[in-house]
Amino acid sequence: QVQLVESGGGLVQAGGSLRLSCAASGSIVSINAMGWYRQAPGAQRELVAGITSGGSTNYADSVKGRFTISRDNAKNTVYLQMNSLKPEDTAVYYCSAHIRDSGTYIALDYWGQGTQVTVSS
Predict the structure, then answer these.
(1) Which residue, 14, 31, 1, is CA-closest to 90?
(2) Those residues with Cβ within 8 angstroms of residue 109's Cβ, 6 or more apart along the chain or in another chain
(3) Which pLDDT score, from 0 to 100, does residue 27 have?
(4) Nearest-CA neighbor of 2 among 22, 23, 24?
(5) 8 Å CB contact between 53 and 31
(6) Residue (of 38, 26, 24) closest to 1 by Cα position
(7) Residue in 70, 66, 82, 91 with CA at minimum distance from that of residue 22
(8) Which residue stretches of the chain have pLDDT < 70?
(9) DSSP 60
(10) Whole-angstrom Cα Rg for the chain
(11) Residue of 26, 28, 18 lying closest to 48 (CA atoms)
């Protein structure tokens, strides 16, 4: 079984920083794209940032210049460095990864359980 486990959320004041981590484990053959999404109360889940296996990145316009996504392929881990946080960044953050597992050899999208990020004004 493949699992994604997130860590690093919490409460921070506006202007502060947080770093989220998401580690994939289990019967993994390969990991393609990885990404971070967020969902605020009453809103739809939205893409925050994505990164390919080759390191190409993309960001939502609302976080460009403030957030940085990176990954450590040896550790099957993706990170999200969040700087200059704003109250509107408050949401549950989810990581996602497109993973091929050794059991079925099928590539599927897997999701973490989510981690709360709260930015106070």
Answers:
(1) 14
(2) 96, 97, 98, 99
(3) 92
(4) 24
(5) yes
(6) 26
(7) 70
(8) none
(9) -
(10) 14
(11) 18
